Amino acid sequence: MAAARPENLSVVVHRAGDLRLENRPVPEPGPNEVLLRIHSVGICGSDVHYWQNGRIGDFIVKKPMVLGHEASGTVIKVGSSVTHLKPGDRVAIEPGAPRDIDEFCKIGRYNLSPTIFFCATPPDDGNLCRYYAHNASFCYKLPDNVTFEEGALIEPLSVGIHACRRGGVTLGTKVLICGAGPIGLVCLLVAKMMGAAQVVITDLSASRLEKAKEIGADFTIEIKKETPQEVASMVQDLLGCMPEITVECSGAEASVQTGIYATRSGGTLVLVGLGPEMVHVPIVNAAVREVDIKGIFRYCNTWPMAISMLASKRVNIKSLVTHRFPLEKALEAFEATRKGEGVKVMLKCDPSDQNP
Q1: Contact 140, 92 (CB under 8 A)
Q2: Structure confidence at residue 1 (pLDDT)
């Protein structure tokens, strides 16, 4: 009798509003891939957005797609050309893997490659499932003292690293972060790690700002009805000067405006949060004060640094996980994320190991 095929329970979005748990075949790893038993997967705002809206900008769900891109797991099978990993290795997955060595890859900015594969960005399937095959070069071995959940959190942490790098955060920098959701909070953690002297963080939610205080924010501002100029002047009052760097993590028009008004002349505004395509901003104010406005698209070259950082125990990212659900309860987990409950919701995909 043939051995029963292991079931590969997967979280699949079919179209806007239609999220299902279904069994898919267990993939066979290609020559340069590894097959992983997935352990922990964080739910991202983008996963919820694809479920609710069926699209993000020009990325449109046209056929059923597995969600999830913040994942870690264990190697159970290696492709014929893979030499650096073996079955039993615990790994963190970098979800963006270039398909072509184009000019962006050659300069080390592979995240900008137009043909890149990226988990859970249509039409590419993600890794919110039990078994998943991925390019082995983008699976990074985790040291024994870094947990699977920390491994999964490297993905959001990488956004913070890339944003703070692009902004130029360094020893003694004063930083404003707009938005205290998961990405604002990782930007806060990274800015502090990179040597920021003082960080101010803004949000509409008092509970999110409470969390920010817990993890190291020097000052918090709960936004009520203030104008962007008023918020900018509150920031200056708290710091005693204008911040050199602002990291905007909400995408809200008013917040982008605040980012320009608040940043000191000659400083940098990094746009991380994505809102509507067209936004009214005081661009002349930025221009005449030489405020550089930079965007970020995901991240590149961040996993090794993030792993070293976590292994050194100098950054505590575990506290961002507030909710855990087994994979079978994925629909509940998505509902909790949609409602904005807690900070980071983690799905546990290995029935035999539900530990962090």
Answers
A1: yes
A2: 47
Task: Return d(Cα 83, Cα 97) in angstroms, integer.
Answer: 18
What single string gives the DSSP state of each residue in 3-15?
PPPPPEEEEEEEE
Q: Name the one residue in this structure whose structure tokens are 């870690």.
A: 72
pLDDT tens for 230-281 read 999 999 999 999 999 999 999 999 999 999 999 999 999 999 999 999 999 9
CB 70 within 8 A of CB 158: no
Residue 134's pLDDT is 98
CB 250, CB 275: distance < 8 Å = yes
- The Cα-based distances of 96 to 9, 21, 226, 297 in angstroms read 22, 24, 39, 11
Segment (H or E) for 178: strand 174-178
**Which residue's entry shows tokens 């056929």?**
63
pLDDT at 186 over 90: yes
Sequence-ordered strand ranges (E) for the chain: 8-15, 18-24, 33-42, 55-56, 59-60, 65-66, 70-78, 90-93, 96-97, 117-118, 131-135, 139-141, 174-178, 198-203, 219-222, 245-248, 268-271, 292-295, 321-326, 344-348
Please list the helix, strand and coil fractions of the chain in percent, rounded to the nearest 5, in that order. Answer: 30, 25, 40
Q: What is the pLDDT of residues 104-151, one digit of tens each?
A: 999 999 999 999 999 999 999 999 999 999 999 999 999 999 999 999
Q: Are strands 33-42 and 131-135 parallel, antiparallel or unpaired?
A: antiparallel
Extract the tokens encoding 334.
Answer: 């998505």
The pTM assigned to this predicted structure is 0.96
Q: What CA–CA distance (Å, rounded) separates 323 from 327?
A: 13
Distance of CA 106 to the CA centre of its chain: 24
> What DSSP letter does each residue of 151-175 carry, written as one string?
HHHHHHHHHHHHHHHHHT--TT-EE
